[in-house]
UniProtKB/TrEMBL annotation:
PROSITE patterns linked: PROKAR_LIPOPROTEIN
Pfam families referenced in this protein's UniProt entry, alphabetically: DUF4114, DUF4842
Domain DUF4114 per the UniProt entry, residue ranges: 302-384
Species name: Phocaeicola massiliensis B84634 = Timone 84634 = DSM 17679 = JCM 13223
Entry superkingdom: Bacteria
Name of the molecule in the record: DUF4842 domain-containing protein
Domain DUF4842: 449-639
InterPro entries, alphabetized: DUF4114 (IPR025193), DUF4842 (IPR032295), LruC_dom (IPR031025)
Length: 644
């Protein structure tokens, strides 16, 4: 063992001596020290506060286009009356149109902090809202699969004689514990115009309630009961439920020209449980065939001269055991509501029925189970086999409302931009030298979601620097041929732009708003750009925004977001000077040697607190450092948590 140790020591000594001779050369002269290699592009964080995800939506429609929105929270709320409504003033992350098959597939850019998405649509036939988790930068929703999974959970059907339901009711068949009838027919192929008209007429928007827009429908000379002039078969098609209650819906008949009496009519259950879509066993366009009770048995056809009325029993179904509770009478909130006003408390009108004048074979029915008079707590339509079977002039016509237009496919985004203006030198990193708020409204076509117009509003909010700093932005992903016109409204005009409101000599359309932020603090610039149908994902606000530092000394000193390219007018001699670590040849821009940004985009933020002077952002926002260290994996919402 001792001999082996000696050998190792001798060998090591000889190696050290040889290394020294090799380093200094045979004559002892030192060789020059090689320059250290630049860090690779991958060593720098991109400071991106946004993420791009793949979105696949399939509502499974046939010739029916709808609009949808994506939210980062549940966009609906449930007031005390049990209705389901969209929250007021809630802002979505993205809005778009499906094609006529109810499909959308594309990339969508949203804040990086978003982990869950709520898919929402107020168009009839959609299940909404749906909570989706972002996984592998993707979300998907297939409505037919979703409905099938709910059907699977409600397959178990108890024989009807094991259910409890009031003796005064008759039934069309069995149902499951969740209220799914065994006698459901295949889904109805509802014409798109019917769904559009029902959506607009029986609106859930307060200032558009049917009782406000069409008060004439509440007048006594219009009936909500259906008088038949021909014998016919009839189906009842469920359209939508705006209520959280588990409502029982059915019908009754009585002779024409007679007044129905509650103790004489026979009430027949059509749907045991109608409720909101996220808890339902019944979905839009589910349908059942109604049967006529002749006093002894059911008949397939309703005879001429009969009148059909409808009822809704609020919260009458029990999900625990499939039981239908005994109906309540009088003025109680859960008293049964009838289409025949004389059966209601104080003769109140609780349904509105409207005839589709185009086909004369569909009658829409909207129920009101509470007090808001929107008549959209449960909506249906009758599919009547015989044309002109409804006696004329007994119910009003369904208004022919407009189908969706491009004016409906509008999305608004907003945020804040913050800049350090000492680039390429290291600043104090308080990120308050220039602060600008923006709000962008984007108009898109239907089906293809091509952008046709953008209205951008930029408001300089704070100036923490001493230089004369200007501001502009470049539409880096489109060309001049994509821009039809640009108009700018604002307090003063940049001296660097031409009569067409764009800067000349640029490869891409470039808009400059002002040259000195000191003159325009708190004043808003409105830029309207008419676009020749550009892809929606090529114009994502705030685009490529930048400041021009010290405009009184020239045009070339630009500061952009990290890795956003400079314009053609930027001074390329400033790269890799001072503390700048840019490597233009590798598309690395505007990051410092110590891996800090010179600009940050804060998406979906209004009234971002102005950072204190000379207080580094790492101190003002403690989560910032870990966000950088983790390359964006942690503390993605750091800018929402200020150090108090």
């Amino acid at each position: 063992m001792k001999d082996l140790t000696k050998c190792v020591l001798i060998t090591a000594t000889l190696f050290v001596l040889y290394s020294c001779m090799d380093k200094n050369g045979l004559n002892g002269a030192p060789e020059p020290t090689p320059e250290p290699e630049k860090p690779s592009v991958e060593d720098y964080f991109d400071f991106n506060t946004m993420q791009t995800i793949k979105v696949n939506i399939d509502y499974g429609f046939n010739d029916y286009l709808v609009l949808f929105e994506l939210f980062d929270e549940n966009p609906t709320e449930e007031p005390e009356d049990g209705s389901i409504i969209k929250k007021e003033n809630i802002k979505g992350l993205f809005k778009a149109s499906t094609d006529k098959s109810g499909r959308f597939s594309g990339n969508v850019t949203i804040p990086a902090r978003t982990e869950k998405i709520w898919l929402y649509s107020d168009y009839l036939g959609t299940v909404s809202p749906i909570e989706l988790t972002i996984k592998d930068k993707s979300i998907s929703f297939n409505q037919n699969d979703y409905i099938a999974s709910h059907r699977d959970r409600t397959r178990a059907v108890t024989p009807v004689n094991e259910f409890k339901y009031p003796d005064e009711y008759k039934i069309l068949g069995d149902w499951s514990e969740s209220g799914k009838p065994t006698y459901l027919l295949p889904k109805a192929n509802t014409p798109d115009y019917i769904l559009y008209n029902i959506k607009e007429t029986y609106s859930t928007i307060k200032n558009k309630y049917i009782s406000i827009v069409h008060p004439e429908f509440l007048e006594n000379n219009f009936s909500s009961d259906i008088i038949l002039s021909k014998a016919t078969k009839i189906k009842l098609v469920f359209v939508n439920s705006g209520a959280g209650y588990k409502n029982v819906v059915g019908y009754y008949t009585y002779p024409k020209n007679e007044t129905p009496e509650e103790n004489k009519i026979t009430k027949i259950i059509a749907f045991p449980n109608i409720t909101r879509t996220d808890q339902a066993s019944i979905f839009s366009r589910d349908q059942v065939e109604l049967k006529y009770w002749d006093g002894t048995q059911f008949q397939d056809e309703f005879p001429a001269g009969v009148t059909i009325g409808f009822f809704l029993q609020p919260n009458g179904f029990s999900n625990n055991n499939g039981t239908i509770e005994n109906p309540v009478k009088g003025n109680a909130w859960n008293a049964t509501k009838y289409s025949s006003p004389n059966l209601n408390y104080q003769g109140e009108k609780r349904t509105i029925a409207l005839l589709d004048a185009i086909s004369t074979q569909m009658v829409t029915i909207g129920f009101e189970d509470g007090k808001d008079n929107n008549f959209s707590d449960a909506t249906f339509y009758l599919d009547i086999e015989q044309k002109d079977a409804v006696e004329k002039n007994t119910i009003p016509d369904l208004p022919d409302e407009n189908a969706p237009t491009p004016d409906d496919n509008v999305q608004t985004t907003f945020g804040t931009l913050t800049y350090e203006d000492k680039w390429p030198e290291e600043g104090d990193y308080d990120m308050n030298d220039v602060m600008i708020d923006y709000e962008s409204t984007i108009y898109k076509t239907l089906e293809t979601n091509k952008i046709t117009k953008i209205i951008d509003k930029f408001t300089p909010r704070h100036n923490g620097g001493i230089y004369n700093n200007g501001f502009g932005y470049q539409l880096t992903n489109i060309t001049y041929t994509d821009v039809k016109s640009i108009t700018i409204e604002g307090p003063e005009r940049s001296t660097f732009i031409g009569n067409d409101n764009m800067e000349s000599g640029q490869t891409y359309p470039t808009v400059l708003l002002f040259d000195n932020i000191k003159n325009v603090i708190g004043k808003t610039y409105t830029v309207t750009i008419e676009i020749a149908n550009a892809d929606y994902n090529k114009l994502i606000p705030p685009y490529n925004p930048f400041i021009i530092c010290s405009t009184d000394q020239g045009r070339g000193k630009e500061v952009h977001l990290v890795n956003y390219p400079p314009t053609d007018k930027a001074d390329n001699n400033l790269w890799s000077t001072g503390e700048d670590a840019s490597q233009p040849e590798h598309n690395l821009f505007y990051v410092s040697n110590d891996n800090m940004p010179f600009a940050i985009h804060l998406p979906d933020v209004k009234d971002f607190p102005v950072p204190a002077e000379k207080v580094r952002i790492t101190t003002a926002y403690p989560g910032f450092a870990e966000w950088v260290r983790s390359s964006g994996a942690q503390n993605k919402d750091w800018y929402l948590h200020k150090n108090e």
